[in-house]
Design a protein that fits this description.
Blueprint lengths: L2 E5 L3 H13 L3 E5 L2 H11 L3 E5 L7 H9 L6 E5 L4 H10 L3 E4 L4 H12 L10 E4 L2 E4 L4 E4 L2 E3 L3 H12 L7 H9 L8 H13 L8 E6 L3 E6 L1
Parallel strand pairs: 1-2, 1-3, 3-4, 4-5
Antiparallel strand pairs: 6-7, 7-8, 8-9, 10-11
Amino acid sequence: MQRILIVEDEFPIARLVMAYLKKADYEVCHASTGEEAVASFSSYKPDLVLLDLMLPDMDGWEVLRAIRQNSSCPVIVITARGEVQDRLYGFKQGADDYMPKPFDPDEMVARVQAVLRRPAHLIEAEQVQFGRLVLDFTARQVTCGGNYIQLTPRDWDLLAFLARNPNQCFSRDQLLDHVWGMDYDGGDRAVDVAVKRLRKSLQEWPSSEGEIVTIRGMGYMLRVT
C-alpha cells in the first residue's frame, strides 16, 4: 500500500483529503505544521506528499526545499495561491504538480494516481555522467561543466529517462507512456516541444560527448560516447 503524507493545517480539509485517499486504498499520515512535516517525512518515508503552503510555523516552500535536499519524492502543492506566477515558482522549486484551492476531492485523487503512475527509474544509480553533463537523480539536478541547468519538472523527467536508457531510441508514444504517464490524453506534439526545450537547455554540452538526436521515422535517442 502506497503511503501519502498530507501537510495541511486546516483540519476539515485534512480530514476530507484523508477520507478520499483511504477510500482509494492509500495509507495516509497527517502533519499540521512544517516542522512536523519535515520530521514525518524522514520517519514515515512516504511515496508522495500533498503539501499546503500556508502553514503556521514555516512557509511551505521551506518544507519543499527541505524535502528536495535529500529526496525526489513526488510533491503535489495544494494552496489558495492559484496565480500563474505562483505555479511557475512552484515548479521551479521542484513541485511535481500544483492544485489550487478550492479543489474537487475526486480530481485530487486522480492527480495523486497520475503522479504515482509515473514509472520508477530503471537504474538505481544516484548519479550518471556523460562527459561534462552530470545528472543527480536524488537531487533532480543537472549540471554541465559544473554549471547548474534549470529544467522544468517534465523536462527533467524526460532527460532522466533518456539518460537512464542511453543510446536507445524511443518513439513519441513510448516517451509519452514512460514520462507523461499512461493517463496523458494530449497529443505527441508535447514530446517534440519538450525535446526542443531540452536541446536549448543543453546547448553548452559538446555534441562530441552526447546529444539528443532524432531518428527519422522512429523517435528520439540520447546519443552518448
